[in-house]
Write a structure and sequence with these properties.
- The protein is α+β, with helices and mostly antiparallel strands and 133 residues long.
- It has one domain: Thiol Ester Dehydrase, Chain A, CATH 3.10.129.10.
- Helices cover 25% and strands 34% of the residues.
- The protein contains three helices and seven strands, in the order E-H-H-E-E-E-E-E-E-H.
- It has helices at 23-39, 44-49, 123-132, and strands spanning 2-8, 52-53, 56-63, 72-78, 86-94, 100-109, 111-112.
- The strands form two sheets. A five-stranded antiparallel beta sheet has the order 1-4-5-6-3, covered by helices on one side. A two-stranded antiparallel sheet has the order 2-7.
- Strand 4 (72-78) and strand 5 (86-94) form a beta hairpin.
- The termini are close together.
Amino acid sequence: MHYEISFPVRYYETDQMGVVHHSNYIRYFECARNGLIADNGYPIQECEKDGVTIPIVSVECRFRHPARMGDTVTVTADIDKVPLAKLVVKQAVYNQEGQLCAEGQVILGFLNKETGHPVRCPEKLLKMIELNI
């Protein structure tokens, strides 16, 4: 499964040098990840209504080239494996010239919303991924 979204770098996302602050790449990853799931028919809100939350277990991000004020970034999210207990999403951020600015992966878990105990991937999400990879 592949998804991408583009948007301009906003002033408040940059530091004094006009470079995107490192913490914002994690937010950029989230925009693409949530879009991927929503555009394929099972938004996170629906998953939570079904009693499952999807917390982040870990985030890995490698910085390659600075994104700057005035750039338009394209953020990608890719799922290439069917999840069981964890969902791995590979992510990247590119500037308008196609330069790789950051890359990494986010690992998500699945918890029962009421008990907080780990559960398997919700059936609706599992089917959505199986159909699209």
